[in-house]
Design goal:
β17 and β18 form a beta hairpin. Helix content is 7%, strand content 50%.
Length: 333
């Protein structure tokens, strides 16, 4: 989920309550979970085994004005329970790296990490592609288009084409969020030269992923997860797979969807500017065949606030968040 200039946002975002229904926090039996240190803002996570062992790649960016500037891809090794910043090489001079949504793809047997990065001052929001090596990321290509106005999440196909969701028609548009306007879009890049808008009129699409020819999109202010058929560079047959309050990033557990959700709008708004104000974190498993939601994790925010992504690795679930400097690990079962 995209947050730009959080202090200014809090000044007007209380109006959001008028446009969102209240949802009670689902209760669940306590599962053993523990926190793992990271850089600020581990908003997105992918699992990677390209080097022959399993690790997590974590997109970290400091988003509060009272924290030191920070933007890195970190790696975490579950077997050693250790983490570190992943070195980046070969970047163009002057590249501002503030990572947001990430996606791992193997193309022609080469593992790549695709990273959405934001340079708000220059209104540049490129997708950056790195070759993944064991101990570093090597810059490979930068993709830029005027259609990338507020990119939030990305999913990449095995031919190098990809889909990116813009969560608004303008980066940091407050009125669209306050009024729940459906001005988000999905942009398709064909892997060569062509960029096109393939879906529009979406309410803050904050997550996107695909499995074979099916694309899933979370529309946060619509409280829905949509399913599309993807074929020949086009999205069609749009339908609601399930309804969930404030869905964010989408990852897979086998054929089903792991989805992080923001259930309490006002608590999320208060948490943006002050870490002492907790915001609930809820993770669902959405069955791709039926749309049924199964509760995976629920916390009132006192343990982890504003959870934004959940990833499965080695029979564990790892949860990232938008602001604070740790992720959470819990047993899957």
């Amino acid at each position: 989920m995209s947050i730009n200039n959080p202090i200014k946002f809090v000044g007007i975002a209380s109006m959001l309550f008028l446009f969102n229904f209240c949802t009670s926090l689902p209760q669940m039996s306590q599962k053993e979970a523990h926190s793992i240190p990271s850089g600020y803002g581990p908003e997105d996570i992918v699992a990677d085994n390209s080097a022959g062992y399993e690790r997590l790649l974590i997109s970290c960016t400091a988003r509060r004005t009272d924290t030191e500037a920070y933007g890195e891809i970190e790696e975490y090794y579950p077997d050693q329970q250790s983490h570190r910043i992943l070195k980046r090489e070969g970047e163009p001079e002057g590249l501002l790296f503030k990572p947001h949504g990430i996606y791992l793809a193997r193309i022609d047997n080469i593992p790549y990490l695709y990273v959405i990065s934001h340079n708000d001052e220059d209104h540049q929001h490129p997708v950056i592609r790195y070759m993944i090596e064991e101990n570093q990321l090597v810059f490979n290509k930068l993709y830029s288009s005027p259609l990338l106005v507020s990119p939030n999440a990305i999913t990449v196909f095995n031919n190098g084409s990809f889909l990116v969701c813009n969560d608004a028609s303008k980066r940091g548009s407050r009125m669209e969020q306050i009024l729940g306007l459906k001005k988000g879009s999905i942009v398709y890049y064909d892997g060569a030269d062509d960029w096109t808008i393939v879906a529009d009129k979406l309410g803050m699409p904050a997550g996107i992923n695909h499995l074979n020819n099916t694309v899933y999109v979370s529309a946060a202010t619509e409280n829905k997860i949509y399913q599309y058929r993807f074929w020949d560079g086009q999205l069609s047959e749009k339908r609601v797979l399930c309804e969930a309050k404030g869905p964010d990033n989408i990852r897979f557990s086998d054929q089903d969807l792991l989805v992080a959700c923001h259930l309490k709008t006002m608590k999320f708004v208060k948490h943006i500017s002050d870490s002492e104000n907790p915001s609930p974190t809820v993770i669902y498993l959405c069955e791709s065949s039926t749309g049924s939601l199964n509760l995976v994790f629920s916390n009132d925010g006192t343990f982890i606030s504003a959870g934004s992504v959940a990833v499965e690795l080695q029979n564990k679930i790892y949860i990232g968040q938008i602001f604070e400097s740790f992720i959470v690990s819990m047993n899957k079962d």
